[in-house]
Design brief:
Length: 308
């Protein structure tokens, strides 16, 4: 988020804790401060009813909460039209589903992705919580292992025990969660023909995409590196990054061959460079431009789970 600043004392304390490597201190603030829970009106139930806004990352449902209105609004504009104020104690008591996880301040520098009970454990220093990139990578790997039979799972778990194994399997794990590869281009065209925006976005978020880069990328896990070779292009005087939903569209729009990485769009969104537009299938009949300030909101595409 360009120009993001802590909006209140809680966020300033969280920022100081992160800068000092104090993860327990970070989660103590989360456990004690007011939390803003975005909601969305729905006409399916009685008038005035609200639904939770959720995010689907690597096939895992996350419930987002924010530690200030200022941090929440840019991430949920156009998605949520209401919010409620709660705290960690109430949130844990009324947690909607044991299968869900908690996303704290997604799309901001103060983000965290954990099981709801982990907040209390981490605040007390009884749990070591990975940073956001490591947590999301772990979700992907868990889902990939769940898809394997017992023998393959044992082999993979042994491989994933090493740091090299974790990194090497990042791309394969994210891909494995998707199951059979759909014809994304066909899904996008069908949704566009129906004028079904929700289906169009869902197809994008489920897609494996081709990301042109400035140099070869042998290991998909390099997308987590600070020196990842993003190929930045100019789009109406703004920096932008292109992705294509098929090799056919990419080679048709960009005949000059360039290196590229094939990876899930969701995994890219979790590490998207701040201030860059997202250009999906530019110069094709399936072209979509997402403004830089709206890219993080794609991870909060609502699942419309009913409130309890």
């Amino acid at each position: 988020m360009t120009g993001w600043q802590p909006a209140n004392d809680s966020e300033r304390e969280m920022a100081r804790a992160l800068a000092a490597g104090d993860r327990a201190g970070f989660f103590r603030v989360v456990a004690d401060t007011a939390l803003y829970l975005p909601q969305s009106s729905t006409a399916r139930d009685e008038p005035g009813a609200q639904t939770f806004v959720t995010a689907d990352l690597f096939g895992q449902t996350f419930l987002p909460v924010f530690t200030s209105i200022e941090s929440m609004l840019p991430q949920v504009t156009g998605i949520a039209d209401a919010y409620t104020v709660t705290d960690y104690t109430e949130l844990r008591e009324k947690w909607p589903s044991p299968a869900w996880r908690l996303a704290v301040n997604p799309g901001t520098p103060l983000d965290a992705y954990v099981a709801v009970e982990t907040v209390e454990e981490a605040a007390a220093g009884r749990a070591t919580v990975p940073d956001a990139a490591e947590a999301l990578q772990g979700v992907a790997e868990e889902d990939a292992l769940a898809e394997m039979d017992a023998a393959d799972r044992i082999s993979a778990e042994r491989h994933l025990d090493t740091p090299e194994g974790l990194l090497a399997d990042f791309g394969a794990a994210t891909a494995a969660t998707a199951g059979p590869v759909p014809d994304t281009d066909a899904l996008l065209r069908a949704a566009g023909a129906r004028g079904d925006t929700d289906a169009f976005i869902e197809a994008l978020l489920d897609a494996m995409v081709h990301l042109p880069t400035t140099g070869p990328v042998d290991d998909p896990a390099r997308v987590l590196d600070a020196d990842f070779p993003w190929r930045v292009v100019d789009h109406d005087d703004e920096p932008a990054i292109e992705v294509f939903t098929s090799e056919r569209l990419m080679t048709g729009a960009r005949p000059a061959r360039v290196p590229y990485l094939t990876v899930t769009l969701v995994s890219l969104l979790t590490v998207w460079p701040e201030g860059h537009l997202l250009l999906v299938n530019p110069d094709t009949d399936l072209s979509v431009t997402v403004p830089a300030d709206q890219v993080p909101a794609l991870l909060l595409f609502p699942d419309q789970a009913p409130t309890s």
